[in-house]
């Protein structure tokens, strides 16, 4: 089958068809999404027959041998840590969600890693109704989902972006305030969903309320984070940082997000969409921060 691989640049290759395990379905892929992390942090060692990709949506063409999961012909969105960028994908029945017939299948491909990450990280902050929540990297894939979900949970959402041009659409998604970096904050926040790392993570930490918490999700800055704890004692009260890690299985959370998308309570925020023959162009746009939200590729 045909697949996108890094060899070392993003290109097409013929690879073996996937062989499902008993608890997996085989999916004919209709759409995939690219994530910043997949492109920016790929392995420096070329593996031309290794199929990358986390997010894929399509139609089940072989049901799971153990009887779990959906039947042949069911539209699904899937999440795993490899194998998405190909014409077919084998995936665990615990890591997929059924997609209703009236929902654009390609839009659901934007949900798995970014949507589930935002949803789980927000949940780990605890109740946020009426509390100030800062989302750094708010214009990216995870950030735009985080803004929406936090606002839906009743938070006063502060969206932090890299520049004024990156703020487009964030107020419509639920941001009550927009700042260019945590340095612009004038009031403390209870919770932080940090997608940037580096100096922004440190600055966000310094601005926590007493017993506030940072969920350290990503490192879009590609910079290490240095915390001056002498300064933190003065500026951040008793705040803490938690190293966020997404937790499997993903199916239940993914189904929840599909439900919100189906009812119009969640926008997939697809900022780039095109055929997968243009994958290199989409990857370049992600790396250069030209995409607001997600990049989705559709297969013929």
TrEMBL record:
Keywords: NADP, Oxidoreductase
Statement: the UniProt record of this protein carries the keyword NADP: yes
A single MF term (Gene Ontology): NADPH binding
Ranges of residues in domain Enoyl reductase (ER): 7-297
Keyword Oxidoreductase: yes
SMART domains: PKS_ER
Pfam families (alphabetical): ADH_N, ADH_zinc_N
Protein name: NADPH:quinone reductase-like Zn-dependent oxidoreductase
């Amino acid at each position: 089958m045909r697949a996108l691989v890094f060899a070392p640049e993003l290109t097409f290759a013929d690879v073996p068809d996937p062989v499902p395990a008993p608890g997996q379905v085989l999916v004919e892929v209709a759409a995939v999404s690219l994530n910043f992390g997949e492109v920016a942090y790929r392995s420096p060692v070329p593996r031309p027959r290794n199929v990358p990709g986390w997010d894929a949506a399509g139609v089940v063409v072989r049901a799971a041998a153990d009887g779990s999961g959906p039947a042949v012909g069911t539209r699904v969105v899937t999440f795993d840590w490899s194998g998405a960028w190909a014409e077919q994908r084998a995936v665990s029945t615990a890591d997929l969600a059924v997609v209703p017939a009236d929902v654009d299948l390609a839009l659901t491909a934007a949900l798995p890693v970014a949507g589930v990450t935002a949803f789980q990280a927000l949940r780990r902050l605890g109740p946020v109704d009426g509390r100030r929540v800062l989302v750094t990297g708010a214009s990216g894939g995870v950030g735009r989902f985080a803004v929406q979900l936090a606002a839906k949970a009743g938070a006063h959402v502060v969206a932090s972006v890299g520049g004024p041009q990156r703020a487009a659409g964030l107020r419509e998604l639920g941001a009550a305030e927009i700042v260019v970096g945590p340095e612009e904050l004038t009031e403390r926040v209870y919770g932080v969903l940090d997608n940037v790392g580096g100096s922004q993570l440190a600055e966000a930490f310094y601005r926590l309320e007493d017993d506030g918490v940072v969920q350290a999700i990503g490192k879009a800055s590609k910079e290490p984070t240095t915390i001056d704890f002498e300064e933190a004692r003065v500026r951040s009260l008793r705040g803490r940082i938690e190293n966020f890690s997404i937790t499997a299985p993903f199916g239940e959370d993914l189904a929840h997000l599909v439900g919100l998308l189906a009812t119009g309570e969640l926008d997939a925020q697809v900022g780039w969409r095109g055929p997968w023959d243009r994958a290199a162009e989409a990857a370049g746009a992600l790396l250069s921060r030209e995409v607001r939200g997600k990049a989705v590729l559709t297969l013929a």
